[in-house]
Amino acid sequence: MSIALRLGLLFAAIAAAVFVAVGAYLYQTLAHQMGRRDDADLLNKAVLARQLLGALPTRDPALLARAIGQDGVTLQVRAADGSVSAVPLGRDPGLADIAARDDARGSRRVVTVLAGAAAAPLQVTLVRTRSDRLAILRRYAFDLLGALVAGTLVAAALGFAAVKRGLRPLYGVIARADAIHAQRLAVRMPAAELPAELRALAVAFNAMLDRLEEGVQRLSGFAADLAHDLRTPVNALMMQTQVALARVRTANEYEALLASNLEEYERLARMIENTLFLARADNAQLALASTALDVRAELEHIREYFEMLAEDKGIRFGLGDVAGLQVRADPVLLRRAVNNLVSNAIAHTPRGGAVNLGAASDGQWVTLSVENSGDGIAPEHLERVFERYYRADAARGAGSSVGLGLSIVRAIMRLHGGTAEVDSVPGGRTVFSLRFPS
Predict the structure, then answer these.
(1) Among 265, 282, 299, which residue terminates a domain?
(2) 374's torsion region: left (phi>0), alpha (psi -120 to 50) or beta?
(3) pTM of the prediction?
(4) pLDDT (tens digit, 9 = 90+) per residue, 236-261?
(5) Locate the HAMP domain: which residues (predicted)?
(6) How far is CA 184 from CA 20, 176, 218, in A?
(7) Structural domain contains residue 17
């Protein structure tokens, strides 16, 4: 069922419950008041009967009954014999003197008083049947039932109409959402114009659209950059092959062509492998084999691996004092992340510069750092150096680099629940930091 119909039925149920409660209260109140009125009338007739018996010259019960009236009250006059408890002559009858009698003829209210002379008193019994009052209450109950049904239907109809009107802003939100598609992600919900109940939904929806728009833009940029980087080695392979096939070549020339082609194939393979790694990391399809690792042993192993490359470029490669530190991480992924940073640092450090590995702990985080000297990274590039294929000469390598190294570093840190950060001073030092939870 629709929300409007559900709320309309809910309003009808609430109205019916309220009408029933109010009707029952009114019915019971009316019944009680009518009973009290009947009892008071019965007492008044008893007093009147006592007065008439003392004033009339005759004690004819028929004449007394006609004087009192026959509106549901029957009158019996007989000599007092003490068999029935009666109100004595010196006291007026009260509510406590009225007795209730229920038999096959129905429910009756009875009061008995003594009247006449004290020497020879008479016993006057007045009986009021409740059939007339019950008939009135029965008619009142039918009226209440009709009002209940009619009121419930009216409440349901008015509630449904009110809810439909109140939900108009929601229909506007639906219409605005229908206007959103891949080419119109800039459409946003008018949160300030919506009721308070829908405002939070509109704000959350707009935030989701912001994330989607950013993701689509990044995906479009990623696709464009990927196509551009794939085009370069493919064009190189095609041109080299076309040139080689233009005329007959010697065996050495074919061998050189194959070696050149092999470099381009390796570049394509690295690009495909890195792209698949990032795709799997984004979809959380990588299973981490986390274990407690000795930081110094891991960094020493990496330093030994890159030491010869650093010496060939005339770069000092150092390792700080990191004894006693441990980090919980996947060893393969940790080495890949640090290797990418070290490779990047060596590629951008001029001859005579230095690359240093370090680590520190503040109790909550264990931070691994790779520092190098060189030109540094301009401030406008710092926040984007980890994006895929982002073009910044100070942050991206050339030649064999496929431009995904720093993106892989950030993906690895996200898998570990950590962060990858960079701090750089143009013309000075550049520090990349990997922060792992302790």
Answers:
(1) 282
(2) left
(3) 0.50
(4) 888 888 888 888 888 888 888 888 88
(5) 164-217
(6) 54, 11, 16
(7) yes
